[in-house]
């Protein structure tokens, strides 16, 4: 009788631990690295623009090479954590936009990876993610 009870208890313990697989998992944070640059923003950069104009459109560069200050790099990468994965946000591979200057103006623009058409924000809760575009942000701006 004791062996039967022990066997039942062991089976119950194994089955209950299998059912807790999703309960006892580690929380992973979202890893956002770099600046989100959309294809719309990158298309605004034209040959002949000044560094001040580029900085106005894209913001300050993430990387300015000390050995080659005429090259500005904007990089972005997103690794979704627990709630972002559940909200359906996908991993964003490494993307890079490089702007090269010569004689104080843009001489060349180099893109690595497909730039997104919209910016994706992090999930505001575990129930979903908020996706915004520049135009929707403009419509929310208070009237002056």
TrEMBL record:
Q: Residue spans with biased composition (Polar residues)?
A: 132-144
The record's section on Pfam families has: BamE
**Protein's UniProt keywords contain Nucleotidyltransferase:** no
Q: Where is the signal peptide?
A: 1-20
Cross-referenced Gene3D superfamilies, in alphabetical order?
A: 3.30.1450.10
Record-level GO BP terms: Gram-negative-bacterium-type cell outer membrane assembly; protein insertion into membrane
Q: Where in the cell is it found?
A: Cell outer membrane
| Region of interest: Disordered | 114-144
Q: Which residues form the Outer membrane protein assembly factor BamE domain?
A: 34-107
MF terms from GO for this chain are:
protein-macromolecule adaptor activity
Q: Which residues are listed as membrane-spanning?
A: none
Family matches, as InterPro entries: BamE (IPR026592), BamE-like (IPR037873), BamE_dom (IPR007450)
Q: How does this chain sit within the bilayer?
A: Lipid-anchor
The principal location of this protein is membrane
Subunit annotation: Part of the Bam complex.
Which family does the entry's similarity section mention?
A: Belongs to the BamE family.
What HAMAP family is this protein classified in? Answer: OM_assembly_BamE
Its annotated function is as follows:
Part of the outer membrane protein assembly complex, which is involved in assembly and insertion of beta-barrel proteins into the outer membrane.
Q: What is this protein called?
A: Outer membrane protein assembly factor BamE
């Amino acid at each position: 009788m004791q062996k039967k009870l022990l066997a039942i208890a062991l089976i119950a313990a194994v089955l209950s631990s299998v059912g807790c697989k999703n309960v006892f998992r580690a929380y992973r944070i979202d890893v956002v690295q770099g600046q989100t640059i959309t294809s719309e923003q990158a298309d605004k950069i034209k040959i002949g623009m000044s560094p001040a104009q580029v900085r106005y459109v894209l913001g300050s560069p993430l990387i300015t090479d000390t050995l080659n200050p005429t090259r500005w790099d904007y990089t972005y990468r997103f690794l979704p954590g627990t709630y972002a994965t559940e909200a359906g946000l996908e991993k964003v591979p490494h993307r890079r936009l490089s702007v090269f200057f010569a004689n104080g103006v843009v001489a060349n623009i180099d893109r690595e990876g497909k730039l997104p058409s919209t910016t994706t924000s992090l999930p505001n809760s575990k129930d979903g993610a908020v996706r915004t575009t520049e135009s929707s942000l403009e419509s929310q701006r208070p009237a002056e």
